[in-house]
Every structure is written in C-alpha cells, then in structure tokens.
Amino acid sequence: MKPYEEKFIIDKIEEYNSQIQVNEIGKYKILKRNGLKGIIDGYLYEKDGEVNAEIPELIGEERIWMRISPKEIQGSYEFIKLAKGRIGIAGLGLGYIVQEISKKDEVKEIIVYEISQDVIDLYNSNFKNNKKIKIIHADAFKVKGEKFDLFFSDIYEYKLSLKVVEDYIKLNEIHQIQQYLFFGMEHFLLSCSYDEIVWVYLPEPWMDMSKRISNRLDDSGYIKYYKKLDEKLVSEVLEAFKLVLNEEEEIL
Predict the structure, then answer these.
(1) CB atoms near residue 53 (< 10 Å)
(2) What is the CATH number of the domain that holds 109?
(3) Which helix (H) or strand (E) holds 16?
(4) For residue range 182-202, what is the model confidence (pLDDT) as tens digits?
(5) What's the whole-model pTM score?
(6) Average pLDDT for the chain
(7) Which end of the chain is more exposed for a tag (fewer CB within 10 A), N or C?
C-alpha cells in the first residue's frame, strides 16, 4: 500500500526530522510544525486525521515553500521509484527528493538547479556532501543544456497551472531529456475527463505512473477520499499539452 501506508509516512517524516534542523539563512528559514491535525492534505485526497510527528517546513517570503508531509512523500513516490541514470531537478526545497533518489544504485548523477543561495545553504547545513549530487545556483531556465535520462520539475508549490506546460516546452528546448515529469502530474491526469484525454498523445510513463498511484490509492482504501482538481483548469492545461505532445508525436 505504499506510499499511503501510515507507518511508511511516519518513518520518512521522522527520518528527515532527525536530519533537518531549525535554522534561518537570509530570506529563508526552517521551522518545525508540531504534527498535523484536522483535514490532512495528502496526494490525490483530503481526509480528516492527524500526523503525530514534527513536520519540517521551508518558509520564505512569507509563505511555506515545502514541508516533509504526506503530500510531499506520496506525491514524489512514483518519480523516486522510476529514477535512474542521470537526473535533472528544478527546485531543491528541503532536499527530500534529492536525498531519496541518491540512495538508489541505479541513479548515477543528480543535477539540481536552485535559484536561491539561501535554500542551498540551508540544505548544506543539514546534509553531508554526496558525490552523486551537484547543486547549481542558477535559474533552471537560464543554464547550459545537459543530457538527462529523467528530469523532474518540483517548483509549483503543489499547485496546477499552465506554467507546467510552458516549463515543459522551455526545459525540453534547453536540455536533451529522455523522460520529463513534474510534481502533481498523476493528479492532473487522473482529473482529466476521458472524452478529452483520449485525443492526447501522452507519454507512456505518465500513464503508467498514474495507473500505479491510482491502484495504490485504491488498495489503501483512501480512494473514497479522492479529490479531483478543478475541472476547468485541468481542461485548459490538457488542451495546452495536447498542442505540444501531439505535435511531438507527429514529428516522431
């Protein structure tokens, strides 16, 4: 039932809570929330409940950028499972995803683009140097092109917008990317109507990941709490992807 198994979630939170310390550098700081209670915002669902563990949070510019929460752990699970070879990532956050994929033997190198030096310094204050990981202080859209087996964009603050399509286009123009993913991709696809999605040439890994996470949600019993994204917004984003992905398919 991973990643919806309660023990799995608590173990991950506690693992990173022990490594990530409260700190403040420049415009960003790490604080710890004393658990979660009430409506838990998980990946693909919302339900009443509680998480009895300290939750590290990255805060900057008067908002929360990331927290080691059920949504982060569940929403990145399929990407972490798929990761292999040379990986590119836009957005460092607290370092959860970077650290998780660095544990995998199949992952040879990870290049992370992070625009904030303060965020990089906070990460470095918590984690030791890892030969697999190279963090570049730069705007991910203004860098020299690289070749990646897999690229993951994690810069959307858990929100869907047309920016995911714009970034897909830009990053694939800059880099040679075999597979491209973004946080929330499965939730987006599972929220699409069949009548619209059937006309879009979606990458096979996107469909496979969406099916797997949906099955895991069902197996866990959380399917009854499943929450679709806004129908109008999903339709707009899918239409934008349709123009890009269908054109790519025609070229191939």
Answers:
(1) 20
(2) 3.40.50.150
(3) helix 6-19
(4) 999 999 999 999 999 999 999
(5) 0.94
(6) 95
(7) C
